[in-house]
Amino acid sequence: MNIEIANRLVELRKKNNLSQEALAGKLGISRQAVSKWERAEASPDTDNLILLARLYGVSLDELLKTDDEILPIREEADECEDGGNGQDPSGTEADRGEEAENIRDAEMVHVGPGGVHVKDKDGEVHVGWDGIHVSSSGEGDDVHIDKNGIVVNGEKYNLWLSGFPMTLLIVIVYVSIGCIWNAWHPGWLLFFLVPIWESLLVAIRKRNAYCFAYPVLAALIYLCLGFFFRLWHPGWIVFLTIPLCYSVIGYFRGGGHEE
Q1: Nearest-5° Cα angle at 47, 42 to 50
Q2: What is the pTM of this model?
């Protein structure tokens, strides 16, 4: 992303009276991601560009307009092929280094004071002070758990679904193990059970497995492997089961198992 677009993102955010953290919460991403956009260190993907345009009430053309000259694709390809001086057509070493850096940015696990942030090509999981946010880049669920409640794919769910006070039970158990065994950490992992339980009930009620917040379950498993067994690596492999899960669901819902 060039600096002109990055500056426009800063201008639009401030014009709408949003902090980086508030914008990140609306998009379901980390504040660090927003900061990278505004420093021109990274670019929003297509889904986030569309969300930004809708949020700010502007068109994509207006959001991305630039005065930079755009060279014809054929001309750029010719320069890469001959290199002018016999260079490797695959690009310079700096170009390959930048590409490798982009790959690392696309698949990362970060644990810091702001919380836990996991990102790969299939989506992002962020667990921090502002809540739990799971965003899928495919057709999976977007789950957000914060002070506003539980929101799955834009639909807010009642925490007292089916008359069972799961949230109250989790709070009681968490406070109990914290006071008795001083296990405030990692006892907070219990709160992952709230969206897992609620989405399970919704999936059963609607007879739709897509409603189950499997990415949240995957995040819980990953954190348990890391905190209890120090298996941050290769524990991240659990996130590879997310696309597999939705592929299996799609296969059976589409009748792919029938002859």
Answers
A1: 100
A2: 0.39
Q: Residue 90, Cα to own-chain centre: how many angstroms?
A: 31
Question: Which candidate, 170, 164, 247, 148, places its Cα nearest to that of 201?
Answer: 164
Rounded CA separation 186/224 (Å)? 9
φ/ψ of 93, rounded to 5, equals -65, -35
Contact 224, 118 (CB under 8 A): no
3-class SS at 109?
Answer: strand
Ranges of H-type helices in 19-165: 20-27, 31-38, 46-56, 60-64, 73-82, 93-106
pLDDT of residue 104: 46
Please state whether beta strands 123-128 and 115-120 pair in parallel, antiparallel, or not at all (unpaired). antiparallel
**Mean pLDDT, residues 31-59 taken together:** 87
Cα radius of gyration rounded to whole Å, the chain: 22
Phi, psi (rounded to 5 degrees) for 118: -125, 130
